[in-house]
Amino acid sequence: MSMEGIEQNPIVYDLMSEMAFQHKKVDVKAWIDLYSTRRYGKSVPLVQDAWNILYHTVYNCTDGAYDKNRDVIVAFPDVDPSFISTSLESYQNNDKPTLRRSILQQDSGSYERPHIWYSPSEVISALELFIRCGDELSGSNTYRYDLVDLTRQALAKYANELFLKITKSYELKDFNGVALHSRKFVGLVEDLDSLLSCHEGFLLGPWLEDAKQLAMDEEQAKQFEWNARTQITMWYDNTDYEASLLRDYGNKYWSGLLRDYYGPRAAIYFKYLLESLENEHSFRLKDWRREWIKLTNEWQNSRGKFPVGSNGDAVYLSRRLYEKYLKNHSGGVAL
């Protein structure tokens, strides 16, 4: 295993670590039932059912694609919206439709399109079960981590759908549609940031503070913080209007990073979409890039501090955001 400090998907690394001590084939379903009991300190049938859904969906990718986390929030498309087309594919499993996928494409082929291999509605069902266990398991730090992470996953896919609606409205020259869905997208990013702040495992602050604590003096601390900020945003080989190819390298869903960087970046793009429609001219891609890169460079050089401790009730916020965005969601189009 080479985890590169990504600190995600603990169940994968727990199972892989245990394999060194196994001498026969593992019954993964039985292992997962036992895993949830060990992880949360008690056996709760509803959360075992939720993990069984995740085992057959999120943790069951067989299409060979190597990079899963290309959601729009953390890997924003650097494309002219005119090059974004949509197509829907219907997948069949046991004669029942289980997945519809929207694909973003661009002519240069340099953009890795969002990728999904499972039914979002099933994962939302798993989230429902997790939330129902909140009163019983809220005292478990690992349960709160998994609840935040699963809610984040479901909302990230919903944000992909919002982005598709924005680009579709732009294609139809629907100014009000672009404005409406853009506001929803930016609002969702802010809500996600609040959710992530509820658990110390999803904070930007510790990343930056750990970097600074390695320094021998203030000048070095400034350099180390710049390094840490640069690694998770855009590596420093950009020009004024050409972004580095090593951008969005970490795809970090961290509180602080969403509110301060990902949200403002999306807002800039949407501003140029609306300007294009209002003034009836083509999308100014070079100007968008210039402003995005300026935002990035300024953020990398900034020294603002971020919390190193959690703040908020993960169970309450997960439930509230589920009610706000996902409860009545059909699970239809998803990126």
Automatic annotation (TrEMBL):
InterPro entries: NAGLU, NAGLU_C
Transmembrane segments annotated in the record for this chain: none
Pfam family, one: NAGLU_C
The Alpha-N-acetylglucosaminidase C-terminal domain, residue ranges: 31-324
Protein name, per record: Alpha-N-acetylglucosaminidase C-terminal domain-containing protein
Record organism: Linum tenue
